[in-house]
Design a protein that fits this description.
The protein has 425 residues and is α/β, with parallel strands linked by helices. 47% of the residues lie in helices and 13% in strands. It has 19 helices and 14 strands. The chain has a 5-stranded mixed β-sheet with strand order 2-1-3-13-6. Strands 10-7-11 form a 3-stranded antiparallel β-sheet. α2 packs antiparallel against α14 and α9 crosses α10. It starts with a helix and ends with a helix. One of its GO terms (molecular function) is maltose binding.
């Protein structure tokens, strides 16, 4: 009797172990035995809606696949991704911002996407840049993330001052901005040309260097900001605040974006990315504005630097890499990507999609950005994005306030960023 009981208990233990083993391997088994692809993204209503539509289309085309789509608040998403990859338990597919990708690809955490030569011809260089490492591709961008080349303007403010718009040259822009600036005893009430935001101070500075045919990367992933081009760019940029006084730092770092103040009527021209147009149309219900080209700082083409934006990657720890790669390739097919870019009001990263007349017909405000995509280049191997931008912004403020010279500020920026770059090797 005792022997039978012991045998029974042993059998129960074996069954429990077997079930536990099955459970631990069930991550990629969905309902009705379908293969399940776990897909993570950050919470953004337009993007999430676009993903849902494409997921439904993919599942209809692949009845043996189930997509487990999970979203997380942006404020915690990046840390959640890091924790999941560190714990060796990442999702099969993850939405990532391009600037985050190099950290994962250089550590072997991502699956290589094949056919890099073909894909490189199909995409613009700027959005693809951060997804490449050592000659290999580790993801597919879904957008061309840019803050340059276009600005929000109020045509009526130009008309009221008898000014033609948009300005054709940089000198025209500065002179118009002076005329359009409105002040009272409390300071500037309407800014003539507002470029004061965390992103735009940095991107405008970099674009001014590039438009002088200058460079800001030296050797060994170090920046070089003590060049004649960088000095001239920073002098011109800070002069807009300290000399021309067409904008100020009064709300810099506040809770509202510079575009919010534009849509409230507090600036005539605001240098901001095309993604802000949707905010004006949807949140502020404003229609008396346009999105127009920003003239080059020089007679050269409007060259600019851009980060690689949102895209999708496959974890190297995924047990279904083949299926996961197939899914992100589906998202990136021209017709699917076109619908995603139209729905999310984002700029297409692929040349054929950007040049599809349907995109501009659906998003007419996008003409200015589309016209300059060929002039963009990847911002480069920035190791710590937040630190990089902070050094430029902090020293910009010190220069504007007269606490340091342009030369000292650029030296500070170069030394601080290069030290950070070395720490992340």
């Amino acid at each position: 009797m005792l022997t039978k009981v012991l045998n029974y208990l042993i059998l129960l233990v074996l069954i429990t172990v077997m079930l536990a083993g099955c459970a631990s391997n069930s991550k990629n088994v969905g309902s009705s035995g379908k293969t399940k692809i776990v897909f993570w993204a950050h919470q953004e209503s337009a993007m999430n809606d676009a993903y849902h539509k494409l997921i439904q289309a993919y599942e209809a085309k692949h009845p043996d696949i189930e997509i487990d789509f999970q979203t997380f608040p942006y404020d915690v998403y990046n840390q959640k991704l890091k924790a999941s990859f560190s714990a060796q338990n990442p999702p099969d597919v993850a939405e990532m911002f391009g600037t985050w990708v190099p950290e994962y690809s250089k550590n072997g955490a991502l699956t290589e996407v094949p056919n890099i030569d073909k894909i490189s011809k199909e995409y613009y260089p700027a959005p693809l840049g951060a997804y490449q490492y050592n000659g290999k591709l580790y993801g597919l961008p879904l957008e061309y993330n840019l803050e340059n080349g276009g600005m929000l303007i109020h045509p009526e403010m130009f008309k009221n001052k008898g000014l033609e718009y948009p300005p054709k040259t940089w000198d025209d822009l500065v002179e118009n901005a002076k005329i359009l600036t409105v002040r009272n005893d409390n300071g500037i009430q309407i800014k003539g040309f507002d470029f004061i935001s965390l992103d735009n101070i940095t991107f405008t500075f970099l674009s001014m260097i590039l438009q002088q045919n200058g460079k800001y990367w030296g050797t060994d992933n170090h920046v070089s900001f003590q060049t004649p081009e960088a000095i001239q760019a920073m002098n011109a940029l800070t002069s807009l605040v300290s000399v021309d006084k067409v904008t100020d730092l009064s709300v810099f770092g506040g809770q509202l974006d510079s575009s919010d103040y534009f849509f409230r009527g507090n600036s005539a021209m605001t240098y901001r990315g095309p993604w802000t147009v949707a905010s004006g149309l949807d949140n502020y219900k404003v229609k008396d504005f346009e999105y127009v080209p920003v003239p080059s700082f020089t007679n050269e083409n409007p060259y600019f630097a851009a980060e690689s934006g949102w895209g999708v990657v496959v974890a190297s720890k995924s047990e279904i890499q083949k299926q996961a790669l197939n899914f992100i390739q589906f998202l990136s097919e021209n017709e699917n990507l076109l619908q995603w870019n139209i729905s999310t009001f984002t700029v297409p990263p692929k040349k054929e999609v950007a040049n599809n007349p349907k995109f501009l017909k659906e998003n007419p405000y996008m003409k200015a950005p589309l016209d300059i995509l060929k002039y963009g280049q990847w911002i480069g191997p920035v190791a710590d994005r937040d630190y990089f931008f902070k050094q430029i912004n902090d020293n910009f403020q010190l220069i504007v306030s007269g606490q340091i010279t342009v030369e000292t500020g650029l030296s500070n920026i170069e030394q601080s960023i290069n030290s950070s770059q070395d720490q992340h090797k």
